[in-house]
Structures are given as C-alpha cells and as structure tokens.
Fold this sequence. Notes:
Elements: E1 6-10, H1 16-28, E2 33-37, H2 44-53, E3 61-67, H3 72-79, E4 84-89, H4 97-104, E5 113-114, H5 120-132, H6 136-163, H7 165-173
Parallel strand pairs: 1-2, 1-3, 3-4, 4-5
Amino acid sequence: MKNITVSIIMGSDSDLTVMKEALDVLNDFEVDNEILVLSAHRTFEATREYAQSAVGKGIKVIIAGAGGAAHLPGVIAAMFPLPVIGVPIKSKSLDGLDSLLSIVQMPPGIPVATVGINGAKNAGLLAVQILSTSNKDLAVKLNDFRTKQKESVLAKSEKLETLGVKKYLNILKK
Ligand code: RP5
C-alpha cells in the first residue's frame, strides 16, 4: 500500500488549478501524498468513508479546498481528529468571500486552520511545517526554503535600487 502522509482533497475538479499549488509544495518537500475530488454534498457517503479511514491509512494532515458553500473542510474535521487545513476557493458569484466565511467560522471544539482565498501554496507549506515538528529533515528543508526566499526578495530590492522604478517595471511587463 502506498504511504500517504498528507492528503489533498477538493470539492470539484474545478478547484484543481488552485489546489495543485499545494501538491507542488508537497512534492518539492518530498512528502508522500494523494490528491482526490470529494464533495461534502455531492458525494457525502464517500467523503464520510474517506475521513473515517484516513487515520488508519497513516494520514497526518488533510488539506481540503472548497468553494461557495464550502463545507468540505469542516465536515472532514468533524470526522478526522488530526490537523485539517481549509483552502477557500475563489468563487464565481462572491469572489470567494462565501468560501472563506464558510470555512473559517468553525464551532469551538472542531478547528480548521484556514488559509487565505486560493491560498493553496500556504496550505502546503503549513502542512510541511506541522510535519516538521517531528521530522528533522523537513525542518532543515523548510529552513533552506526560507533562506532562498529571503535571498530572492533581497535580490529584487537590490535590482530595483540599481535600475530605478521605470526600468524595473518595464522588465516586469516583458
Ligand atoms: C464546491 O462547489 C467546489 O469546491 C467548487 O469550488 C464549487 C463549484 O463546483 P463545480 O460546479 O465547478 O463542480 O463544492
């Protein structure tokens, strides 16, 4: 059986473009994962079965993305006792505010760690950070990631100072 440490689930395949950003992070950090479509409303039996069997499969964190009446992360959190990270997907009608509010306002006792609208990259990183509390290799990789990120930002600042705003913006446009 395949090892799965973090699972990524989403309410619809229309969420995939956003949720792939979480997948990319997990793959970059070499965290065993699986990704699938499960809906709290359209496939509620399969969602219940998945949440209730996740601990038995070795899953430590579930990242759940949903849009609109975004009940998937909360429903999963009700049945899975380990961390659930919710990703509100930007919806067509209300720009994702509906998704954000549906996910973030959990009743006390059943938490969902909610990232920003379409914040799947941060969801992936948060999952890695949770695992890094008991995994030194991941802690080292996270430290490297942050060092590279810092260097990249500082290099941009230096370039801006050297080129000036006008030239810098022209390069950005290309
Ligand atoms: C939610 O409804 C999904 O998470 C998705 O964001 C939204 C729309 O789904 P589709 O109509 O695109 O399948 O359950």
